[in-house]
Amino acid sequence: MRIGELARRGGTTTRALRYYESLGLLSSRRGANGQREYDEDDLRLVNEIRSLAGIGFALEDTRPFVQCLRDGHRTGDSCPASVEVYRRKVAELDTCISRLQAVRDQVRAQLQDAEQRSRPCGR
Fold first, then answer.
1. Is the dihedral of CA 44, 47, 51, 52 positive or negative?
2. In terms of Cα–Cα distance, which of 61, 59, 80, 58 is closest to 71?
3. Strands 29-30 and 36-37, bridge-based pairing
4. Which helix (H) or strand (E) holds 37?
5. pLDDT digits over 8-55, tens only?
6. Contact (Cβ atoms closer than 8 angstroms) between residue 50 and residue 10
7. If we measure between CA atoms, which residue out of 86, 43, 26 comes closest to residue 78?
8. What is the model's pTM?
9. Rounded to whole angstroms, how far apart are CA atoms 53 and 34?
10. What CATH architecture applies to the domain 3-118?
11. Contact 44, 69 (CB under 8 A)
12. How far is CA 84 from CA 22, 49, 56, in A?
């Protein structure tokens, strides 16, 4: 399939596919006419990249998942390197959640103080 069809089927743009290719996440073959050609395996790679990017993974973090698929595994997360990326991402998310909870607690305390100050005297 050509790049336009891969983009359409993968839910992305030809520009994104060229970018993935420049990062080495995707590779194309050139047909006799010089145009990029892709196959169903490439569509699997694009779907994996898009799925992970959609939940907040940086493109570089998708590399082990892509390699796992290229190595013939049924899923991109069935390799140790992919599992390690999951672990690292969970740790990052836990840190973010902790920071957000601390900020929420601080804002909540400031809100309570402000509400108490804004009450009319004698009430």
1. positive
2. 80
3. antiparallel
4. strand 36-37
5. 999 999 999 999 999 999 998 988 888 899 999 999 999 999 999 999
6. yes
7. 86
8. 0.83
9. 30
10. Orthogonal Bundle (1.10)
11. yes
12. 24, 17, 16
